[in-house]
Amino acid sequence: MSEGKTRIAVPGEKLGVEEEFIPGEGVYVEEGKLYSSITGALVVDPKSKKVGVSPSTKVAVPEVGDIVEGVVVGPMREDSTVVEILRIKRKRSLKGVFTGILHVSQAAKGYVDTIFDAVGLNDWVLAKVVTDWPPYQLSTADDELGVIYATCPKCGGELILKRGRLFCNRDKTFERRKVSIHYLLKEGSYVGKDSKRG
Amino acid sequence: MTNQIIPSVKRRQIIELAESGKRMDGRSLTDLRKVEIKTNIVEKAEGSATVKFGDTYVIAGVKFEIGEPFPDTPNEGVMSVSAEFVPLASPGFETGPPDENAIELARVVDRGLRESKLLDTSKLCLIPGKKVWIAWVDIFILDHCGNLIDASSLASLCALLTSKLPKAEVVGDEVKVLDEYVPVPLRAIPINVTLAKIGDKLFVDPSLEEEEVMDCRLSVAFALDDQKQEKICAMQKGGVGTLSFEELLRAVEIAKVKSQELRKLLPSGEK
Amino acid sequence: MDKKLITEDGRRLDGRRFDELRPIKFQIGVLKNADGSAYVEWGRTKILVGVFGPRESHPKHLAMPDRCLIRARYHMAPFSVEERKSPAPSRREIELSKVIREALEPAIFVELFPRTTIDIFAEVLQADGSTRCAAISTAALALADAGIPMRDLVSSVAVAKVDGSLVLDVMDAEDKLGDSDMPLAMMPSKNLVTLIQMDGLLTHEEFVKSVELAKKGCMEVYAKQKEALDSHFRIASKEEV
């Protein structure tokens, strides 16, 4: 659309009729008429005859395909566990949590015997949302997904990523996890040192 | 990649940044956020003020009512401070009666105002033992972004400083409230400054993310009386961490300098 | 009670004509923590509204499988009125919370967010009449600021009968001394009433006139709401670029 003269549509504003336009984002149809359901700049595509409203602010609820960050809160079952979703990537901060479920079949690309082989209680994980319905089904199969921060179940110390596995420096033991390539504590590098801030 | 909301990771970042004297929001360790004071916001209150410390936003209102004095101080008026964490201020605030945090906040603010002898309660007595002025100071937290104690103390102070006391006439056992006002009898002016301790560093005017990972905080109120004498009038340590004696003394030193800075922002005429 | 609310030449206590609104100033996006927020100065009535959500319902048994739960709280600051009000919610506040929720809910696409809650919190900082109407109109803006899909905005105003005549946008003195009070809220572009309450005595004819006057008032409030949204989001979209 031409710039300069942006028109801001508000909820309930009539944008046209069905014979004229195809409803796009932020538009609903009632009795053959098109209305805006949100506030934002009106976008009309003269070619496709599509009218939409580009939202000025968007609600933050998990949707299929979203990458979320959360904590494994349990209970830990053989086949699944509950993850509290604390953040949705590229969406505004959450005011409260959403409940997610991680099933063992969605934990890794290969076969995983039980959920205990993929995540531990209180682990922080990156996961992808697979269903649109709460409680949200999650997947940690992709390389970037999985555990990003974990502590030792025996001593509570932070686990370090060592040769692709999580290691407790105090107990000198390895823990089984589906680790994300974004795991925060890597052997030799100290967290936060390399993070850039203004 | 991730935005580091894992508390222990964030804490480490805050400490590392502090090594070079910096903070997540770009301040130095001793910088206050931008402080904004507005007074006479609510005309129906006898005094009112909003205070912002960065995005932290509070309002305080003062109402005067005639009531009974406490039996042990029959010749003195009463000041009562309460704080409400209204639910629009934070996703974590629930509706319902004030919880321990709201009550601690009100009591810390109250102590600063009371111990400085800000309000001359002896001048609020109408009929000894029977009728006195009650000054209700109500604090509403509107947006919680850290350091509620200092923002609330300053808002309460500014509301009191700019409040007007109704003039009252005593005839026998009757008190007649007139349509005129007199200034509120005020004496020493208290200013509260809070520091958070994270690791071995002290952070003036902690933000919410700093408060979430702090070991403890120390609030110190300094009163300046009409002789221009500066005294410490109230203190509160909060949180489960500890302070060394050296840290305690250093915190008070810093707080004193900061209180002088805040004092300059008070509504005109009051110093 | 011989205080005149309307002068000989048809002016009200604050100089308004019978069909005039008080000055109304909406501000949008005033709080950092809330998902959406708005503030209004409506004459001397001052209200702050914050919206949270949609967020997961808590406690969980409140969750509805096919739609979003809407909760509203109307609350007055102790210093908002002449005589200090106890901060504990009164019966009046609890009723107003309910009618405010019911006035706003028809406008929200609740079916889009099953098993979640939207919380609307209205804090009255100063009350000078028509607080429920101001709260509803301001809450509609806070909901829009939160990006919550809505069928329409909601606009609200009250009409009173004082000294025998009908007046628009009731202020405190008129509410206390007037003969009747009728708050009304509507979805302005749908022409549907979402709230009506009335107390006092009106003839049938006066009632019809009151409704007409309220509708006219709502459309004027609507214009101000649109103006506020337009200027807020115009600036916001410029900043992004």
Task: Explain the overall architecture.
The complex is a heterotrimer of chains A (198), B (271) and C (241). With 198 residues, chain A is mostly beta strands. Helix content of chain A is 0%, strand content 37%. Chain A has two domains: 8-55, OB fold (Dihydrolipoamide Acetyltransferase, E2P); 60-187, Beta Barrel (OB fold (Dihydrolipoamide Acetyltransferase, E2P)). Chain A has strands spanning 8-9, 14-17, 22-23, 27-30, 33-36, 40-45, 50-55, 67-72, 80-88, 98-103, 124-129, 136-139, 146-149, 159-162, 165-168, 173-175. Chain A is elongated. With 271 residues, chain B is of the alpha+beta class. Helix content of chain B is 25%, strand content 36%. In chain B, the strands form three sheets. In chain B, strands 1, 2, 3, 4, 5 and 6 form a six-stranded mixed sheet that branches. A four-stranded antiparallel sheet of chain B has the order 10-9-11-12, with helices on both faces. In chain B, strands 7-8 form a two-stranded antiparallel sheet. In chain B, helix 2 packs across helix 3. The mean pLDDT of chain B is 91. The mean pLDDT of chain C is 92. Chain C contains four helices and ten strands, in the order E-E-E-E-H-E-H-E-E-H-E-E-E-H. Chain C has helices at 91-104, 131-145, 172-177, 204-240; strands spanning 24-28, 36-42, 45-56, 69-76, 116-126, 155-162, 165-168, 180-187, 192-196, 199-200. At the B-C interface, strand 3 and strand 6 of B face strand 3 and strand 5 of C.
Write out key terms for the chains shown.
heterotrimer, B: 271 residues, alpha+beta, six-stranded mixed β-sheet, four-stranded antiparallel β-sheet, 12 strands, 36% strand, C: 241 residues, Ribosomal Protein S5, domain 2, five-stranded mixed β-sheet, five-stranded antiparallel β-sheet, 30% helix, 29% strand, globular
Q: Considering the protein shown, what is the CATH homologous superfamily of the largest domain in chain A?
A: Nucleic acid-binding proteins
Share of helical residues of chain A: under 10%
Between the first and last Cα atoms of chain C, what is the distance in angstroms? 60 Å
Give me the number of helical elements of chain A.
0
Helix content of chain C: 25-40%
Sheet of most strands of chain A: 5 strands, mixed, barrel
